[in-house]
Amino acid sequence: MQLDLSALSARDAYGWLSGLITPRPIAWVSTLDAEGRSNLAPFSFFNGVTSAPPTLLFIPVNLRDGAKKDTVLNLEAVPECVVHIVPHALAAQMNACAARLPRGESEFAAFGIEAAPSVKVRPPRVAAAPAAFECRVRQIVPVGEGPMAAHVVICDILWLHVRDEVLGPDGAVDAARLDTVGRLGGEDYATTRDRFTLERPDRRR
């Protein structure tokens, strides 16, 4: 099959992207609006950028009417957030936060998610998350306009929380203990429970 994505509707193109770019890590992002009300939302277009300086990005896609998501509106007003890693044990709560609530209504309260104070930023963090990056927005880059367009949010990482129970005896993150989930196409998710190892080639030449 050969496809010209530019000839497809945005929704059909999104289906191909989300079905093929898998598994995608999930950023569970907490923000505050200008009135100090919290928001918590998941985004599966998410990854690290560089460690010099430590940065990450996530990409909120516009609503079906073309409006910005609350996360983007909040970051424009209060350019700080906490990006959480999602383990299997919190997958259902993360998924609940994908529901569209009235603006200003907190997902922490709506779905019984315990919050904890952050160290460097104003938004609260998910207390039970195995890892959380406290971030300050470096840049918000709009890509396209209207429905299914998006905003690439690039953040500097200011502080990292990692729960001791996801670390192995060597002090490094143990993938089995972290037990993250990834997004596939449609309503499907994957775990990281099946793993294999490949020796990396010598890249010094």
Explain how this protein is built.
With 205 residues, the protein is an alpha+beta fold. It has one domain: Electron Transport, Fmn-binding Protein, Chain A (Pnp Oxidase, Chain A, Roll). It is built from five helices and twelve strands. The chain has helices spanning 10-20, 70-77, 91-96, 107-110, 175-178; strands at 24-25, 27-32, 38-43, 46-51, 54-58, 80-84, 115-116, 125-126, 131-143, 150-162, 181-183, 189-191. Strands 3-2-6-9-10-5-4 form a seven-stranded antiparallel β-sheet, with helices on one face. Strand 7 (115-116) and strand 8 form a beta hairpin. The mean pLDDT is 96.
The CATH superfamily bears the name Electron Transport, Fmn-binding Protein, Chain A
Fraction of residues in H or I helices: 10-25%
- Give the CATH level 1 class: Mainly Beta
Give me the strand/helix succession. HEEEEEHEHHEEEEHEE
Spans of at least 5 consecutive residues with low confidence: none
Question: How much of the residues is beta strand, in percent?
Answer: 25-35%
Write the CATH fold name. Pnp Oxidase, Chain A
The largest sheet is:
7 strands, antiparallel
Ends distance = 38 Å
Radius of gyration using CA atoms only: 18 Å
Q: What's the total count of β strands?
A: 12
Mean pLDDT: 96
- Numbering strands along the chain, what is their spatial order in the largest sheet? 3-2-6-9-10-5-4
